[in-house]
Amino acid sequence: MASGATHEIKALAETTGIPVINTLLGLSGFPRNHPLSLGMLGMHGMYWSNMAVDQADLLVGLGMRFDDRVTGKASTFAPHARIIHLDIEPTQVGRNVPVEVPLIGDAKAILQALLPLVKHRPRREWMGHIEDLKQNHPSLAIPPSEKLQPQQVLKELNELMQEDSESVVVTGVGQHQMWAAQFLFFNGCNTFVSSGGLGVMGFELPAAVGAQMGRPNSPVWTVAGDGGFQMTSQELATMVQEKLPVKIVLINNGYLGMVRQWQEMFFDNHIKEVPISGPDYVALSKAYGIPAVRVKHQEDVMPALRQAQKHDGPFLIDFVVDHAANVFPMVPPGGSLGDTMEDPLTSLKS
Ligand SMILES: Cc1ncc(C[n+]2csc(CCOP(=O)(O)OP(=O)(O)O)c2C)c(N)n1
């Protein structure tokens, strides 16, 4: 995206027939509705993406850095693959995983030189195998429940976003960030803004202010955690002052949810210091002059999103969701992509 090479990446994928997987920060670099797009990989990636990497005989890494959230256990990452790695920064190449072919330089220039050299290869068997993985391992299935599931909120936001490929989504850090990365299908270039390597909570409101200033004519949604929201909620005043029509989707689970999930799954369910209190978010928002509604029931999700969309100015929706929801698929800490756990029931038993 920084190199302006999205056209070349699309051409490379379509010519070679190689399916495309995105890292968290690469989401929106390749249209998610494209038949070759498989979605995110890594710790909370799609099951089929992780298995495709685990089983592939060739990986082409474009401007990504094989960080630990992508590779899981680095020594067992993509054990059958020869790796070609393109990056503008030479020290990134071979840093985390062994690389057979380094390509150092600007992505657009290198891909333009490479494109005339590659041939079309239909990969029916490989794509058929990935399709079977998708059918048999539905990573985007929402657990049935009476309670409002956060994944449903993101799924419905995605439906609405599909009407305008210029929609920009910003997130904080935590479970809501991962659900956004999984459920939102970005088709416009550089439309997803999230804190990746640094993973800084409190990013959701100030980064949305920046995104709306940078793209004044695009709809900007921010998906916020109730923990992160409380770190920088004073930016509501900036939105009002600068007349920025940011729509705030607050995923209010009453917890530092991602930390609770780790305590539950990997620390013998010792739930410590993660339930959090908070203000009445609707009242707080209104105190800043930003209209707001609270949603607790499944059938009220889309009407509230539409209300926010139609409002000419900033708007906040306080989605009170099931606090016990966990993010799946998940590569357990220290595990390999091949160990990806698919769903809460089977994985917690093993
Ligand atoms: C400034 C900062 N402090 C702590 C962390 C560690 N951390 C990562 S996710 C998380 C919980 C986030 O809670 P919330 O914003 O409510 O989002 P949720 O996981 O519930 O969706 C914490 C504490 C962090 N990433 N950044």
Instruction: List low-pLDDT spans.
Output: 345-350
Largest sheet: 6 strands, parallel
List ligands, each type once: thiamine diphosphate
* Largest sheet, spatial ordering of strands: 7-6-8-9-11-10
Identify the overall geometry: globular
Helix content: 25-40%
Determine the N-to-C terminus distance: 40 Å
Q: Strand share of the residues?
A: 5-15%
Query: What is the number of helices?
Result: 14
**Mean pLDDT across every amino acid position:** 96
Radius of gyration: 20 Å
List how many beta strands DSSP finds.
Answer: 11
Describe the protein in words:
With 350 residues, the chain is α/β, with parallel strands linked by helices. It is built from 14 helices and eleven strands. Strands 7-6-8-9-11-10 form a six-stranded parallel beta sheet, with helices on both faces. Helix 6 (150-161) crosses helix 7 (175-183). It is globular and about 60 Å long. The two termini are 40 Å apart. The model is unreliable at 345-350 (pLDDT under 50). It binds thiamine diphosphate. Thiamine diphosphate binds at residues 172-176, 199-202, 225-228, 251, 253, 255-259.
Question: How are the elements arranged and paired?
Answer:
Elements lengths: L5 H11 L3 E3 L14 E4 L6 H9 L2 E5 L5 H4 L10 E6 L13 E4 L2 H8 L9 H13 L13 H12 L6 E4 L3 H9 L8 E2 L10 H11 L5 E6 H6 L3 H7 L5 E6 L4 H10 L14 H7 L4 E4 L5 H10 L4 E6 L23 H6 L1
Parallel strand pairs: 1-2, 3-4, 4-5, 6-7, 6-8, 8-9, 9-11, 10-11
Bound molecules: thiamine diphosphate (TPP).
Thiamine diphosphate binds next to helix 7, helix 9 and helix 11.
